[in-house]
Amino acid sequence: MTEFIARQALGERVRGQALVAKDGFSARYDLDRLRGVFSRPSHKLAGQSYVGRILVLDVAKGGVATAWMLHEMASRGLAPLALVLNSVNPILAQGAVFGSVTLLAGFDEDITTKVPTGALVELDPATRALRVL
Amino acid sequence: MKLNDLERAMLAGEKGPALRAAIEHQIKVGDFFGAQDFVPVTQAHIMADTESLGEAGVRWLESLGRDNARMLVPTITDPRGTDFAKASVLKQPAAGLELERRTIEAFKRLGVMLTDTCINYQTIQAPARGEHVAFGDTGVVIYANSVCAARSNYEGGPSAVAAGLTGRTPRYGFHLEEQRRASVRIRVECMPESLNEWGALGAVIGRLAGSYWAVPVVEGIEAAPGSDSLKHFGAAMASFGSIALYHLVGLTPEAAAADADRLPLAHRIGEAEIRALQAAYAGEKEIDVVVFSAPQLSLYELRQLAALCDGRRFTKPLLAVTSPQVKPDADRFGFTACIEAAGGHVLSGMCFYQSYAREIAEANGWKRLATNSAKLVNILGGYGYVPLLASMERCVDAAESGRLP
After folding, report:
1. Which residues pair with A59 in a beta bridge?
2. Domain carrying residue B209
3. Which domain holds residue A94?
4. For a tag on chain B, would you pick the N or C end, based on fewer CB atoms within 10 A?
5. From the list B49, B173, B238, which residue is nearest A90 (CB)?
6. What CATH number should be reported for the domain holding residue A125?
7. Please, are residues B84 and B114 in contact by the beta-carbon 8 Å criterion?
């Protein structure tokens, strides 16, 4: 098991499969929320499903819609399980609070290089810990 | 977070369940960012298109109204998801329009003023220097912070609603003086002219700076850009880089205090970089639709567009989107009639990408979209469009010939 400590965390403890890319995240810019896949052609996860996955990405990008959209996606059972980013903007934190999606952000290392896609990951916001199991 | 008596009363539910939910939300966000306390705000601005809210978000807004909550400070709205007068032209889904109607009623019940604009700094009331506000829409925030020297973070819809209800917001980010200092120094070695070039320059800077917490300080822009130029410049920077504040040396109010000289020069941007950005959105010549939106057009932009449309006959749809405050003046001055006589449409109170862009693309057979908005081309790729960035003049030519010259 390898453990990484985030500087910021919120939400409930979760465990799930990681989907990882050195790329940004914006619910409006990057996702087809009806089908639950990354849809922006230039995104490194284009075509892949994010539903129920722990997304490990670089930075929060784009506009303010993510603040509503995580809540809306969760209401239809088409949300990611959790989000892990090197850096977040307020929108992602506000959206995670509103949508009850676990969020960890800010690491001493580039977290996208430390977690392999497909790995089983546990997030514990109370201790701000990300564990690769 | 340290709470005063009023805030503790809100948290205890003494001011009603809606205010308790609002301040609980704000405290969770504030704790995440290490806020020490709240700061009072003078106004709030809510981004709440129903494509983003969905059924779940609309129900949440309606639930606040049932609790008899009312906005404590003046609270206004970003563009809505339609112009009902033009919904049939766009072929928007009926279910989305019904959500719009419910959202409008929910906002009225909360005492929200439905201004439906993302250019409130040009049309409603620009904030003053040092004024703490809770603005949604990234383009509004970056203009308010940078050009007006007001203080705002990006406030997503739920947080802006909460700020309107409580009259405050957690004191973190750009409400703090230390966050407003420049962090990356950039030299611009050319002067953009058209709005698409200003947008492209903003996009290049946004990509280079690359984080909400970065504050670019830009040297080399000698002459004062106008409000519309800075509107496109900031909106693109925010869209491409999530930037909320920039300084222009010698121009913007806080540039002198940004302390740029302590920073090494990190980047130089010339015509080549601006051309390269635009070349990434020039993959097609044939077009299906022309859109002027994101941000909504000012009266001066509509004046320019009307002059370009005069005497033309379009073969492709041309949509020009403005605010409900500008539209009556555009009507009075004949700009709307001139654009629509050529076959275009002037829409009010909406924004193209917030208006079920994917569904209307499928309904109308739109894929190749020409615009002069760098922000819009950045957004629409994810919606299945092939976005093309060109000047207003070339876009109007394309609406006539079906092809970008």
Report:
1. A87
2. 181-278
3. 2-132
4. C
5. B173
6. 3.50.30.10
7. no
Q: Assess whether B49 and B157 both reside in one domain.
A: yes
pLDDT at B346: 98
State whether residue B52 sits within 8 Å of chain A by CB. yes
Among B31, B158, B238, beta carbon nearest to A98:
B158
| d(C-alpha B391, C-alpha B338), whole Å | 19
From B177, B199, B214, give the residue that closes a domain. Answer: B177
Question: Is B25 exposed, middle or buried, given 0-12, 13-18 or 19+ CB atoms closer than 10 A?
Answer: buried
**B194 in the same domain as B142:** no
Q: Does B137 touch chain A (CB under 8 A)?
A: yes
Q: What is the share, in percent, of chain A residues with pLDDT greater than 70?
A: 99
Interchain CB distance below 8 Å, B353 and A98? no
- Listed residue (A112, A96, A97, A117) closest to A50, CA to CA: A117
Domain count, chain A: 1
Q: How many domains would you assign to chain B?
A: 3
- Domain check: are B210 and B344 in the same one? no
Task: Indicate which of A64, A98, A128 best probes the interface with B, i.e. most B CBs within 10 Å of its own CB.
Answer: A64
Q: In this complex, do A63 and B31 lie within 8 Å of one another by their Cβ atoms? A: no
Question: How large is the ipTM?
Answer: 0.95
The domain boundary residue, chosen from B243, B278, B313: B278
* Residues B317-353 pLDDT 10s: 999 999 999 999 999 999 999 999 999 999 999 999 9
Residue B153 pLDDT grade (very low, low, confident, very high; cuts 50, 70, 90): very high
Contact A10 B379 (CB under 8 A): no
